[in-house]
Please model this.
Amino acid sequence: MFQRAMSFLALFSVLFIAVLFIAIDFWLFISNNVSLVSWFFDV
Model:
C-alpha cells in the first residue's frame, strides 16, 4: 500500500511540474513574447 502511494505521489509530482512549466511558459509568452521552449530547443 505504501509503495503504491509513493508511486502515485511521484506521478502526481511529475504531472504537477509539467503543468507548472506549461503555465509559466504560457505566461511568459503572453507577457513578453519569450517562450521557454524556444530557449531550450532553439526553435
User: Anything to note?
Assistant: The CA atoms of residues 25 and 36 lie 6 Å apart. The two ends are 44 Å apart (CA to CA).
